[in-house]
């Protein structure tokens, strides 16, 4: 079956998997390390993703972290948003907490997504069209935070709700950790771009998770400026309390 024959969800999943495997091949065979390895893996995965999307969906828009932004996308209803290697540091260190993101935003909504976690056994791909039952929650909420720069809001909310912090690498890995039952809350306030969250949000929404800005407003994609200040992905059972605590903390400053 050619790429053109695949439906959007199957296309996203196949490309995320193939880009992840290509990045693994680059790491294994290039002899590179550090930033040079990250750049090479990013570039190779980006070429695969962008060439395939332009071939399979020539009438759709495309936004990639690794390409100059073609702002004509802003007038298009359907726009693919990709992050070839989300978490280049973790990728270079052969850790498991990096990801490949492939998403389709329709009229600004993260509608279809696939997130590959290539360093997990078997090359796991989580898909918006194949949601699984969510695992049981921990009694004490686990908050995913950056390995190096934990968001102050996440620390404060976790403290207020009796939660614990779980350091992890890429945004996609954090979001998928909530889907996989490894944590309950991913609250990020340090700024990201659309490609950091579009595919993870599509997958998380399909699994019944709450996804929004940290003030509760919707996440809107395919904007002229790709910067997104903050993000909340969490189990629905915790959403109201987390949002209320964020508002309380904001109001006290």
Automatic annotation (TrEMBL):
Signal sequence, renumbered to the chain: none
GO biological-process terms attached to the record: 3'-phosphoadenosine 5'-phosphosulfate metabolic process; sulfate assimilation
Coiled coil location: none
Enzyme class: hydrolase
Superkingdom of origin organism: Bacteria
Cofactor(s) required for function per UniProt: Mg(2+)
GO molecular-function term, one example from the UniProt record: 3'(2'),5'-bisphosphate nucleotidase activity
EC numbers: 3.1.3.7
A Pfam family the protein falls into: Inositol_P
Binding sites annotated in the UniProt record for Mg(2+): 65, 83, 86, 196
The protein's name in its UniProt record: 3'(2'), 5'-bisphosphate nucleotidase
